[in-house]
Amino acid sequence: MALERYLEIAERTGGPILELHAAPGWAAIPLARAGYRVVGVDMSGGPLHDFQEELDREDRDVGHRIHVFQDIATLKLADPDFPLAIAAYDDGPSRSEALGQVAAAAARHLAPGGVLALDVPDVANLLRFELEPVLKSAGLELTSMGGGSLVTATKR
């Protein structure tokens, strides 16, 4: 499961953590429960509204560790030095565009040497045709293909 791997990587890198495509909070909330500060970003208000409703049901301390923003494509946070960015990659019809947005947003906000952890369906196919060139063009270097569907890249 990607969540367990995200927690393992977070233990190595520390926080804060940037989660791209964060709605509905399936990773951000458990990471905040574990004590990490998480900034969640997504593209549309509907899923983020659902995320906020989930967050409202959480303990107050968890809620204070999560900040949610909209519009991954234009994201420019004041503190761009995250040691870890995570994303569950959506394998939808605009997957190349979504992957490019995730890689670009991660590259803009990761500290040098920071890690992007992607949960990617059909890793072998994406790696061959899209993943490595998209990561490279964003300034990220593919570093590992872990068990299951988890891929990591490091900011150069």
From TrEMBL:
Keywords: Methyltransferase, Transferase. GO terms for molecular function: methyltransferase activity. Signal peptide: none annotated. Residues 17-114 form the Methyltransferase domain. InterPro entries: Methyltransf_25, SAM-dependent_MTases_sf. It comes from the Bacteria. One of its GO terms (biological process) is methylation. This is Class I SAM-dependent methyltransferase. It comes from Pendulispora brunnea.
